[in-house]
Specification:
The complex is a heterodimer. Chain A has eleven helices and two strands; from the N terminus they run H-H-H-H-E-E-H-H-H-H-H-H-H. Chain A is an all-alpha fold. Chain A has one domain: ABC transporter involved in vitamin B12 uptake, BtuC (Orthogonal Bundle). In chain A, helix 10 crosses helix 11. Chain B has three domains: about 35 residues, no CATH class; about 200 residues, 3-Layer(aba) Sandwich (Rossmann fold), CATH 3.40.50; about 160 residues, Rossmann fold. The longest helix of chain B is centred in the N-terminal third of the chain and has 20 residues. Chain B starts with a helix and ends in an 18-residue tail after the last strand. The relative contact order of chain B is 0.12. The chains are: A mainly alpha, B alpha/beta.
C-alpha cells in the first residue's frame, strides 16, 4: 500500500511537468491549427535562458520565470510575424508548417551547440535536493513547485480566455476566424499573441525542467514527444484535457514499473498514443486530431 | 608514335603525349624503393566524445592522450629502429555517437592514413569503432571500453586497458563483505541493484549477483535495468524504497548518476551503503549535486592518484599532469595516458611502424604501469583485455575520496554504515 501511495505521488509530480510541457503545444494548435514542432527547441531555449540567468546573474530560476516567459513570448511573436503568418491556414498549411517549424527547431539546436557546446548543464540551487516530509514519504521541493505552477497556469489561462477581451477574441478566432474578421477582430494580432503565449509556456516548461534534470542542446526532443502524447490524449485544444491527460500518462508510466522493466516504461506512453489515435482520435476531451 | 604525330603535323598532340610520359616517369620514380621519402613521424589517429553526453569524460581522455604525446615528443620522439620519430596525433570529435565514431575511424584509416588508433570512450562507442580497426588490421588500443562483450569477440587488433566491469562489481562486494564480517551491516543484507541496460551495466550486475549468490549472505530484493540517459527515475526509486533494502548499488554513467542521485536525495532515501559503480568522486558530479549529498558514496575505479608512491611511473604521471593542468588527475586521464604509453612502447619494441609487428608486441607486452598491480599485460585468454584489481574509494564529508580497499594501497578507512541514515 505504501508503495502504491509513493507511486501515486510520484505520478502526480511527474504529471505536473508533463502538463507544463504540453500546454503551449495544445494552445497553439487549438487556435492556429499549427503543430508547433519548434516546441522542443523552445523548451531547450527556456532551459538555457534560465541557466544563463542563474549562472551569470545569480537569479533564482523561479524568479527568472517571468523574464524567461517574456523573452520566449517575444520570440514567439517574432517567429509568427516573420515565418508562421506566411503559411496557409488549416489543413493546407499542415505539411508546410511541420517542415518550417522543424527547421526552426534545428536552427535553435545548432545555435545552442555553437553558443554552449554539447556539455550537459544543470541548474543547482540551495534547495535543489530539498524535500518536504509528507505522510511518511518525501516530496521534492522543486517538483512540488512545478506541480503548483502546472495547476496555476491552466487556471490563469482559463481565466484569461474567459474573462478578458483578448481571451474572448482568441476563443472566437479559434472558432471562426473569418467571422471575427467581419466583426473587426484583428485576427493576425490574435494569432501572433497566441503563438507568443504558446512559446512562452514552452519556455517556462524548459526552465522548470532544467531545475530537475541535466540538459544539453539536444534537450527537448523527448519532451516534445511527451507533449504530443499528452495533447493527443487530452484532445488538441483542451486545457482541462491536457491536465487530465498528463496525469493519466504519468500514472500509466509510473505504475508500468510494477509489471515492466524500468527501461520500457517510457515506451508505454507511445503505445497509448497509437491506441488513442486509432480508437478515439478526438482524444479524451477535445476535437479530432485526424480527419 | 611521337615521330608519327610530328610527321603528321600534330604538334599539340605530340606535346600532350610528352607531358603524359613525363608525369608517368615522375610517378614511377617516386614509387621506387630507393627514392621513398624517409618516415619522420608516427601518425596516430583517435576519436573521443568531445561533445554530447560523454563530453566531459571525453575531454579528460584528451588530456591524457595529449600529455602522453607531449612526453613522447619531448625527447625527440619514439625510438623506432634506431631513429627518433615524432608522434603526430589526429584527434577528432565523435560527438558521443556510434555512427560518427565508426565513420571517423574509417576516415582516419583510409583517408588520413594513420598508422595506429587510440580508442574512444564508452562501451558502446568502443564496441562499434573497434570493428573498423579490426577490418583494416589496425592495432586499436583503448582505455574507454570495459564491458567483456567487447573482448569476447576475440578481435586480433583490439587491446583494452580497462579491467572488466564484472571485477568492479565483485571488488566492491569484497569490501562490503568485510564490513558485514565486522558486523557493520546486517547479515543477510538486502541489496537493491539497479543497472543501466547496456553491456557495462550487465557486467556490473554479473559481478555483484555472482558474489552475492556465492556468499549466501546477501539477497537481491531489487534487480532492475534502467534506460541509459534516462530523465525520470522516480518510479524506479519508488520500487527501491518499497523493497526496504540495506544497500543501494547502481551502475550508471555520469549524467544518469547525477539525475538519479538528485532524485534519490530529494526522495529522502538513505541506505547503509550506496554506490554508483565507477561514479561518485567526479568533480563535475560534486559540483552538480553538492559535497554534502555525495558524502559516503562508494566507488570502485580503475585508478586513483593516491596509487602514486614516491617514484615510479604513477608518480611521474601525477607530477607531469599537475604541472601541465594544475590539478590532480582522475582515472579517465590516467587510462588515456596509459593507453597511449602502451601503444608507444609497443611501437618502440617492434622497431618499426609495421602494424603486424606492433600488434604482436602489444600481445606480449609487459609494461611497468601506473595501473593497480604495477604491470600492464593484455592476456589472450580474456580477449586482450587487461586484468588487474580495482581500487575502492569513498567520498568523505571533507570532499576527499581516499582509497579504502585493497588494504595494501589504502590511504584511508572506509565508513560503514552511512552515518547520515537514521538507523
Amino acid at each position: 500500500m505504501a508503495q502504491v501511495f509513493d507511486l501515486v505521488l510520484s505520478a502526480v509530480l511527474l504529471a505536473g511537468l508533463y502538463a507544463m510541457m504540453a500546454y503551449g503545444l495544445g494552445l497553439i494548435y487549438g487556435v492556429l491549427r499549427v503543430v508547433n514542432l519548434a516546441h522542443g527547441g523552445v523548451i531547450m531555449c527556456g532551459a538555457y535562458l534560465g541557466w544563463v540567468l542563474h549562472e551569470r546573474l545569480g537569479l533564482d530560476p523561479y524568479l527568472a520565470l517571468p523574464l524567461v516567459m517574456a523573452v520566449t513570448f517575444g520570440f514567439g511573436v517574432f517567429l509568427y510575424r516573420v515565418l508562421v503568418c506566411h503559411l496557409p491556414r488549416g489543413a493546407a498549411g499542415g505539411p508546410a508548417s511541420l517542415l518550417l517549424l522543424f527547421g526552426v527547431w534545428l536552427v535553435l539546436r545548432n545555435a545552442a551547440y555553437l553558443l554552449f557546446t554539447a556539455n550537459d548543464q544543470v541548474i543547482r540551487t540551495s534547495y535543489s535536493t530539498h524535500s518536504l516530509p509528507f505522510f511518511g514519504t518525501f516530496l521534492s521541493v522543486n517538483r512540488l513547485a512545478v506541480l503548483g505552477l502546472a495547476l496555476v497556469i491552466p487556471l490563469a489561462l482559463q481565466l484569461f480566455l474567459s474573462r478578458t477581451y483578448l481571451g474572448k477574441a482568441i476563443r472566437a478566432v479559434a472558432q471562426n476566424a473569418d467571422s471575427c474578421t467581419l466583426v473587426g477582430v484583428d485576427v493576425e494580432r490574435v494569432y501572433a499573441i497566441t503563438f507568443g503565449l504558446g512559446t512562452a509556456l514552452a519556455g517556462a516548461a524548459g526552465l522548470l525542467s532544467a531545475t530537475l534534470f541535466s540538459f544539453n542542446p539536444a534537450f527537448g526532443a523527448g519532451e516534445l514527444l511527451k507533449s504530443f502524447v499528452v495533447v493527443v490524449l487530452g484532445g488538441l485544444g483542451s486545457v482541462l484535457g491536457t491536465s487530465v491527460a498528463a496525469l493519466i500518462l504519468a500514472l500509466v508510466e509510473v505504475f508500468a514499473i510494477l509489471v515492466l522493466p524500468s527501461y520500457l516504461t517510457s515506451a508505454v506512453g507511445f503505445v497509448m498514443l497509437v491506441l488513442v489515435l486509432v480508437l478515439r482520435p478526438g482524444g479524451l476531451f477535445g476535437r479530432p486530431v485526424l480527419g | 608514335m611521337l615521330r608519327f604525330l610530328l610527321l603528321r603535323g600534330r604538334a599539340r598532340d605530340a606535346f600532350r603525349l610528352t607531358v603524359l610520359l613525363a608525369c608517368w616517369v615522375a610517378v614511377a620514380c617516386r614509387s621506387q624503393p630507393g627514392v621513398v621519402a624517409e618516415r619522420t613521424e608516427i601518425h596516430i589517429g583517435a576519436t573521443l566524445p568531445l561533445t554530447g553526453a560523454e563530453a566531459k569524460v571525453g575531454g579528460f581522455f584528451k588530456e591524457g592522450y595529449e600529455l602522453a604525446v607531449e612526453e613522447a615528443n619531448h625527447g625527440g620522439g619514439l625510438e623506432v629502429g634506431g631513429k627518433r620519430l615524432k608522434v603526430k596525433l589526429s584527434l577528432l570529435d565523435d560527438t558521443t555517437n556510434q555512427a560518427t565514431a565508426v565513420s571517423l575511424a574509417d576516415r582516419l584509416i583510409n583517408s588520413e592514413k594513420v598508422d595506429f588508433l587510440l580508442g574512444t570512450y564508452s562501451t558502446a562507442l568502443v564496441q562499434a569503432q573497434s570493428t573498423v580497426a579490426e577490418q583494416n588490421h589496425v592495432p586499436y588500443v583503448n582505455g574507454g571500453g570495459a564491458a567483456t562483450d567487447i573482448y569476447r569477440r576475440n578481435y586480433r587488433y583490439l587491446f583494452g586497458l580497462l579491467a572488466p566491469v564484472e571485477v568492479l562489481g565483485s571488488t566492491l562486494m569484497q569490501w562490503i563483505d568485510e564490513q558485514q564480517q565486522a558486523g557493520k551491516i546486517p547479515k543477510p543484507a538486502r541489496i537493491a541493484l539497479v543497472w543501466e541496460n547496456t553491456a557495462h551495466g550487465k557486467d556490473f550486475r554479473l559481478g555483484v549477483s555472482q558474489f552475492a549468490a556465492k556468499s549466501g549472505a546477501y539477497s537481491l530484493v531489487v534487480d532492475e535495468p534502467f534506460e541509459l540517459n534516462g530523465k525520470d527515475f522516480g518510479a524506479l526509486l519508488g520500487k527501491v524504497k518499497a523493497a526496504g533494502a540495506d544497500l543501494f548499488l547502481a551502475d550508471a554513467h555520469l549524467p544518469d548518476y547525477i539525475t538519479m542521485h538528485r532524485q534519490y536525495v530529494s526522495a529522502g532515501l538513505c541506505h547503509k551503503l550506496v554506490s554508483y559503480g565507477a561514479r561518485g568522486s567526479e568533480q563535475g558530479a560534486i559540483e552538480a549535486l553538492g559535497k554534502e549529498n555525495v558524502a559516503h558514496i562508494l566507488s570502485a575505479v580503475w585508478w586513483n592518484a593516491a596509487l602514486a608512491g614516491k617514484d615510479g611511473p604513477a608518480r611521474h604521471f601525477v607530477d607531469a599532469f599537475k604541472t601541465r593542468y594544475g590539478r590532480v588527475p582522475e582515472w579517465f586521464q590516467a587510462l588515456g595516458y596509459e593507453s597511449a604509453r602502451a601503444l608507444f612502447r609497443a611501437i618502440e619494441l617492434a622497431g618499426s611502424a609495421d602494424r603486424e609487428a606492433v600488434r604482436n608486441q602489444l600481445a606480449k607486452l609487459e609494461l611497468p604501469s601506473i595501473l593497480p598491480g604495477g604491470t600492464l599485460t593484455f592476456p589472450a585468454e580474456s580477449g586482450q583485455q587487461a586484468r588487474y584489481p580495482f581500487v575502492v574509494q569513498q567520498n568523505m564529508p571533507d570532499g576527499t575520496s581516499p582509497i579504502i580497499f585493497p588494504r595494501d594501497v589504502a590511504n584511508g578507512t572506509g565508513i560503514a554504515p552511512n552515518p547520515r541514515c537514521p538507523n
